[in-house]
Design a protein that fits this description.
This protein is 86% helix and 0% strand. By secondary structure, it is mostly helical. The chain has one domain. The longest helix is centred in the middle third of the chain and has 35 residues. It is globular.
């Protein structure tokens, strides 16, 4: 019972951060489960993916009602991410833990966390580069947008299925670069949630088939995360989200280096 409530506290903390900044779900929850609670990496990834799918449903529904989802971008990302997630899950199911050790998952998680940290810190610069390219080469840039978006989806599909990290922070960074003028801040968040929901669901179901989901753990996490997200959303307009994002990036970089070393 005590362990269960500790999981709920962790879920509340991660949910609060997500509510304030819109990022950090998988990037924080999986390392917390592995490093603080000693959950097996594969089990942490699978449980976190279904946790993300359930929690993102509520956020995506809210943005859908407010019209802050760009469905064209969602379709392009999903065209790459969903097949990539399904194929990655099938690969994990075929080779399983016999050939893919926990160390491989931890290394992949470490790399994903470092990429996420870099993306958070460089988000503004990447958006500036995207705007310059969009302005200087508008015809060529728009012609390449669909293929580049699908390719970005493929990268996210593989990363998310392997580590549960990337759908939020990295997906947002990719969108601000590829669609620097089309997507407003609200639409970036809404579009990211709408895309991350089916991606987390497909990847999570793949891990469920493999047996990498702990439903008791999932229930405790959800018990804490829902009030955490609501509380974070209430203070999101007052909190210095940019500074929170930088702090998260620093923490993720430290965790990533720790996992790799």
């Amino acid at each position: 019972m005590i362990d269960g409530w500790l999981y709920s506290v962790a879920g509340a903390g991660v949910g609060f951060v997500v509510g304030v900044t819109g990022i950090g779900g998988g990037a924080l929850m999986t390392p917390v489960l592995v490093m603080l609670f000693g959950v097996a990496p594969a089990l942490a990834v699978g449980t976190d993916l279904l946790f993300a799918a359930i929690t993102k449903f509520f956020g995506a529904a809210m943005h859908g009602r407010h019209g802050t989802i760009d469905w064209l971008v969602v379709r392009r990302l999903a065209l790459g991410s969903l097949p990539a997630a399904a194929l990655t899950a099938a690969f994990l199911a075929v080779y399983g833990r016999e050939k893919i050790g926990e160390g491989v998952i931890l290394n992949a998680l470490g790399v994903a966390l470092l990429l996420t940290a870099a993306g958070l810190l460089l988000k503004g610069r990447l958006q500036g580069i995207g705007r310059r390219l969009r302005t200087d080469m508008p015809v060529r840039f728009k012609a390449l947008q669909p293929a580049l978006t699908v390719a970005a989806g493929v990268i996210l599909g593989v990363l998310v299925t392997t580590t549960s990290v990337g759908a939020g922070a990295l997906g947002t960074v990719m969108m601000v670069y590829l669609y620097p003028y089309r997507l407003t801040p609200a639409k970036i968040v809404g579009t990211d949630l709408a895309h991350a929901l089916p991606l987390a669901l497909v990847a999570g179901l793949g891990h469920l088939v493999i047996g990498n989901v702990d439903f008791t753990l999932l229930g405790w996490l959800l018990l804490g995360s829902i009030p955490g997200i609501l509380a974070g959303s209430l203070v999101s307009t007052r909190a210095p989200a940019s500074w929170v994002a930088r702090a998260i990036a620093l923490v993720l970089a430290i965790i990533g280096v720790r996992l790799l070393t």
